[in-house]
């Protein structure tokens, strides 16, 4: 039942670009908790000050931010919201089972890699497809996208390995049926001289309440431990950790410029890439699409989904550190907000991509978060939004800031028309 709910919610998301544009994401009662969509009922709130350290010291330079304030905020976000993840894998091995095959009329060279996250080669394997621009003579910068579907379902290329995905019933099944997620146009990246790679998040851990039993986290439980501790990794941390393992592989591949890797994901995977980018500074650029609550949106702004909704145990608590739920009814005690997640990326480039009618995710809350994080980027001489007013749908005036913001006209997801904007951003910052 819960899995069915998750899947039906995923159906509304266009992940690869061609899916349905959702009319208006506006549920009014979720987990028995009313949802506010009225600007005049948002309430007054004061955001925790990003530029004051826990001991009261003011942050006025990049060095104090980097050496003192950032680490203390990072630890809070880790312990409270996403949960601590292990340093790296105990052992990691790669099987490059497709070593370089021309694809898309020679526009691309395709590679396929299987990453074994444990000693057991029969489970916990992550499949990654990589397209390198065929014309590129030097190591390729890449966009690594984390997806809700197996890559053979989202890319029209007959040479792809057919992966497995988790069914509605929580079973691993062959990914040989079409998905509602549409197809990714890989060639647009090749044309821009940017490589494209993607993986299925369920290869790391399935996305349902007891998914831990089947996912990577279970292999790190200590003897006798049946669940993670309240400050340990939820599923989002697990997915983020998995992305770092793909980065481990990139660092071994001479055809890839591992210093120029951008990551992208939408919705819960928008939260995932934000956290992955914060946590693993090897990622140069992050594109967080419709990340919403628990992502870039401000939690203290009572609009759309709230911490109470997202951490309700009947909904998505398994995606977070269990500690997060203890702030559901006392948000004023949360020592950070969405603006801290945005600021923790500084000074690296971050693009927030949202949708104007995605009310549940609160695109305005994401914009205000970027505005509030701008002083941190400014410590490094970098720019965030140049206005306090939410740009109109389709307005690209705030796209190309170091801390960029772009809101399409429409709902929850990534539209085909968003990709050219994202590529323009990547060409500037990657
Ligand atoms: C739900 C959830 C959101 C999440 C979204 C998604 O709507 O409440 O926080 O972003 O699913 O992943 O599509």
From TrEMBL:
* Signal peptide positions on this chain: 1-23
Q: Name one GO molecular function term.
A: carboxylic ester hydrolase activity
Q: Does the keyword Cytoplasm apply?
A: no
The entry's keywords: Hydrolase, Serine esterase, Signal
Domain 4-O-methyl-glucuronoyl methylesterase-like residue range list: 232-381
Family matches, as Pfam families: GCE_fung
- Which protein, by its recorded name, is this? Acetylxylan esterase
Q: Could you tell me which species this protein originates from?
A: Spirosoma profusum
């Amino acid at each position: 039942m819960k899995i069915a709910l998750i899947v039906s919610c995923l159906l509304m998301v266009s992940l690869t670009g061609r899916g349905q544009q959702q009319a208006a994401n506006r549920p009014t009662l979720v987990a028995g908790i009313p949802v506010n969509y009225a600007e005049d009922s948002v309430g007054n709130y004061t955001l925790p000050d990003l530029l004051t350290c826990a001991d009261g010291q003011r942050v006025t330079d990049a060095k104090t931010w980097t050496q003192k304030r950032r680490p203390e905020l990072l630890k809070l976000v880790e312990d409270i919201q996403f949960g601590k993840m292990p340093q790296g894998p105990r052992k990691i091995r790669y099987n490059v089972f497709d070593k370089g095959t021309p694809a898309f009329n020679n526009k691309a060279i395709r590679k396929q890699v299987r990453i074994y996250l444990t000693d057991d080669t029969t489970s916990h394997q992550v499949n990654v497809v990589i397209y390198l621009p065929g014309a590129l003579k030097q190591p390729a910068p890449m966009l690594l996208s984390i997806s809700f579907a197996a890559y053979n379902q989202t890319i029209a290329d007959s040479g792809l390995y057919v992966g497995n995905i988790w069914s509605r019933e929580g079973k691993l099944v062959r990914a040989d049926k079409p998905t509602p997620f549409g197809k990714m146009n890989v060639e647009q990246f090749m044309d821009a001289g940017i490589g494209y790679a993607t993986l299925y998040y369920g290869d790391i851990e399935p996305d349902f309440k007891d998914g831990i039993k089947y996912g990577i986290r279970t292999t790190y439980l200590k003897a006798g431990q049946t669940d993670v501790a309240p400050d340990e990794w939820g599923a989002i941390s697990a997915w983020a950790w998995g992305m770092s393992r793909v980065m481990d592989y990139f660092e071994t591949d001479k055809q890839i410029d591992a210093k120029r890797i951008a990551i992208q994901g939408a919705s819960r995977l928008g939260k995932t890439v934000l956290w992955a980018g914060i946590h693993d500074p090897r990622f140069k650029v992050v594109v967080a699409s419709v990340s919403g609550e628990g992502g870039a949106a401000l939690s203290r702004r009572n609009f759309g989904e709230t911490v109470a909704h997202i951490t309700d145990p009947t909904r998505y608590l398994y995606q977070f550190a269990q500690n997060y739920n203890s702030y559901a009814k006392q948000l004023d005690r949360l020592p950070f907000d969405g603006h801290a997640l945005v600021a923790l990326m500084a000074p690296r480039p971050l693009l927030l991509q949202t949708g104007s009618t995605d009310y549940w995710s609160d695109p305005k809350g994401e914009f205000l978060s970027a505005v509030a994080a701008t002083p941190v980027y400014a410590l490094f001489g970098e720019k965030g939004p140049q206005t306090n007013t939410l740009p109109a749908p389709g307005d690209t005036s705030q796209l190309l800031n170091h801390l960029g913001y772009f809101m399409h006209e429409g709902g929850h997801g990534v539209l085909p028309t968003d990709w050219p904007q994202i590529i323009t951003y990547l060409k500037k910052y990657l």
